[in-house]
Task: structure prediction
Amino acid sequence: MGGERQNIRIVSADSSNPVLLFIHGGPGVCDRHLVLKYQSGLARDLTLVLWDQRCSGRSYSGKGAKKEVHTEDYVRDAQQLTELLCDMFRRESIFVAGHSWGALIGALLAAREPRRVGAYIGQGQLVNGARNAELSHRFCVEEARRLGDERVLRLLEAHPPVNGRYLNVRAMMLQRDCLARYGGVNYLHRGGVMQSLALPLLTTVEYSPAGKVRYVRGAMHLTKALMDEVAGCRLDETVRRLEMPVLMTMGRHDYNTPAELAREWFDALDAPRKEWVWFETSAHSPSFEQPEEWARAVRAFCLSIPQNRV
Result:
């Protein structure tokens, strides 16, 4: 896709089932190992497609990492993949589930491909990069102050984001680590970036040892390469209407992509059908934090939508 070899994995009990494409977050933070761990049961009723985006996970290459990348590249890749899946499974449309950065790509894809995207499911919905960074940073500052974490508080207050952009990657990663430790990433199982991201990757068999190295290289590269574009995203201005059913699955305690921004966008969104589901003990990833509840909501939503084969 887009001149780059990209890896997908398909899991299904019956290829005649409706197709659900997962678009992971990051940029570059693939989650197929977590989807397989927590959501493989959905494959009884849906055909799951797990895509490692360009320069991410199994799609990483040193050659590809030397090329300039933009959000537009990922949207076009998603368009090509959607067309491929419709042809492969002989369907007029597929369902799309986007998470975080992937929810930005997913919403843009849905806006462009109303014929091929039969429903859109958002999780950890990224809406407005500048406001997102401001609210997420404010949460960490307030928690550090409440907990008396004076050293961290000083560092956070010294380097706040400006228009969604941190001074450097180090300042951004400090905030991300605090966010994870304070419950804004995983509400019940709190830990720093190492525990929330690195340990699941280190223990999975979905990526080989060499593949895990490539995974980390891709994530680090894309964090820098797309930092400004993530900060500059304005979904609340660019996507005001979607022509398919929309399901938002949001964690009540999400401060990675603060849910209040997603709610504002959702309330203003013009769509033929909209559903919002809160997950009360989740933060950024209800599909992994409350997997049974998330699967139940997604299964019911998807199976309620008529599907046409070609």
